[in-house]
Amino acid sequence: MTPTSQRPVRSGFDRWGIPILAVGSLLPLFWCLPDFRALFWFGDEWDQLDQISTHGFAHWTLGFFGENFAPIFKLVWGSVALGSGGSYFALIVTVWLAHAVTVGLLGRWLRIAGFGCVGTAVAMIGFGFAAANVETLGWAVQLITVLGMLFFLAAGQWQQAREQGEGWNPRSLLVLGLLTALSSFSFVRGALTGLALTAATIWSLWAKRRGPGAWIARWKVALVCLLPGLLSAGLIAKFAGGNHQHLAAAGWAPPLEYATWYFLLNPLHRFLDVSTWGPHTTLVLGAGKIALLYAGWRLATPTQRALLVPLLVFDLGNALLLGLGRHHTGLLTTTTSRYQYVSLLATVPFVAVLVDAALARVGSRRPLAALIMAGATGGVSWLALSPWPATMKSWADWRGRQGRQTLLVELNPPATGAVPGIDFMPTTKAKELIERYRLH
Q: Given CA atoms 345, 349, 351, 355 in this order, what sign does their dihedral have?
């Protein structure tokens, strides 16, 4: 048990700065509001609506979604889709609200782990405002990823607060198990939550040189973390469709190659808007990412490393699972926008370490400290925010205006190939779904 005097003291930044930055992460939504309002149902969303229509809401919720077993996501997504009277914008707002909560949880976890105010703000801005996340935040079905990461961060900050505070009791273990389960059953890679948090527990015990008694006492924590993920992984391995069912024939080489490229390229390729692509770009960006991770790790305190460990484990595990599930799509897809969310979230805390370390080095030299703070926050803000208008203009044309024109305005659309992102669905079926659920 940690004495009260050793617990982190809540500052004005914790009370006001973190909530303001979390709410501020909604800025791109308001900035590009006409484009977000123009977005329309796309791809997998038509398939999900068709399944709800065919099988009923309850049966659909408990079914598999590709390689995902995600009843939590389906419950939220389906409830908003149907409860809003078919409003796609309502779903987009739901994604953004969940994202804002995720940004706030990241800030809270960073502060619990001992990160400074400036480093925390830089991490929240870099992750929360990034236009690199356009597909995650501009395609409502990607609520699956946002919810998974929201509950992962909620579980992570809950665990570290208990480790540094009053310790564990049955109630706190129950909350940890519930949050881990919510992440595990929100999307397929949420199954990594338990593994990542167990790694954090092992790291904390090892770093503090705890004896055998402490290790034994933590078995309950590891158990409640691991069980939901193991159950999710078992169900997916046994019943869900996906490339994992054909791994014996395909071999491990293609998934590992895809995973390696993904890990090395992201999130720098999208965040820095790099125009080149190929082996040389991968090597350069990969070297930059590894150097960033190494420097951040070396400069981090043991308490900060208790946060960096689960994020790094999640990033690596996410790369492996993407390699397993998406290697057949080609290496060019490793930098797809919807794959940025996890990588960016896992990387920005390492940047926060470097920012805080730079400020600590300059100490009381206020002009230099002010320059570092302004440069770090201003530079990250510009890199994250500036691409939004142009990005959303083209995104809304492709993912919204074209589909609305074809399905809602044209009197005689093509019989096939007209449904956005799901060419095999007959136009008559889409029209039926539009009428039944009043899609708009």
A: positive
